[in-house]
Fold this sequence. Notes:
Blueprint (H helix, E strand, L loop, with lengths): L7 E5 L7 H9 L6 E6 L1 H11 L4 E4 L12 E6 L16 H16 L5 E4 L4 H6 L7 H9 L4 E5 L4 E4 L6 H7 L2 H17 L7 E5 L14 H15 L3 E6 L7 H4 L4 E4 L2 H12 L4 E5 L4 E4 L17 H17 L7
Helix pairs in contact: 1-2, 3-5, 7-8
Amino acid sequence: MNRHALPRLALTAGEPAGVGPELLVRLAATSMAANFVAITDRALLERAAARCGAAIQLIDDDGADVEHRTPGTLRVRHIPLICDEVPGSPDPRNAQHVLATLTEAADGCLAGLYAAVVTAPLQKSSINDAGIPFRGHTEFFAERSRTDVVMMLASPELRVALATTHLPLRAVSSAIDANSLERTLRIVHNELRAKFGFAQPRIAVLGLNPHAGESGHIGREEIETIIPTMHKLRKEGMSLIGPLPADTAFVPAQRQHYDAVLAMYHDQALPVLKSEAFDRTVNITLGLPFIRTSVDHGTALDLAGSGKADPSSLIAAAHMALNLVVRQRPEEVIA
Length: 335
């Protein structure tokens, strides 16, 4: 790659009937110093631009390096829709299109064609309604790259990783065992070093139960699983704090002591993050052999087609991806 070339960031539009295509158009209108390549249907983007009232120039991607990008220009890797979208009404017939865009993005990143991938939201139910078992972006990219991954959501002020993701609450306890917790903590520790530049990351680990189990009086997961795993990894040199009660772990006095938090389940910590930085929060998949960031919201079907969807989270995700690329490969990009 030409060291003066802009990083090639793959963009996927997600659910064609959602706000994703409109968000991509809004992102392309910014002056961000990245070579955006939208992996989706060209006509879908044209219709999204018309709904937003945005002037945009779509350029067929030829894989060439570019040193400058004019705001409003967007390169396109055309993946045709199966049927035209109806904003607000996902059509399962387009499930194959959505999966084809993710496949192109993942395989392109693995092959070095893209420096990172930034994903707009998709509609999992629509893919499953097409008869294709699908759990989400995170699981798809993990399976495609054959890696173990961890979901992290990050704002400029707070980073939260998850030991479990989209599980019923009653299934969480059995999903957290010593092996899975150790694997998760290793991934978070290594990625905080490799991607975020922390030489010795400090990770706060939340307890599963109220008051972190209160010495076994409100559950024994801390005593039997969490504390022994933390003790093992501390002996290897990891800086682990806790297990902390979730109800006080995010107060200002605590935050100064850690660089990231590992929560035991999805809703244990994410409400804190999203309530204070919803439009600045980015979903990052840790453990992949490439950089993947995403918005922290869904397809917003009620807004689709209105041209009023807020692109802040997608812009934040693209900024995060670009910053991670620059941090890992500063010699290949311009400042």
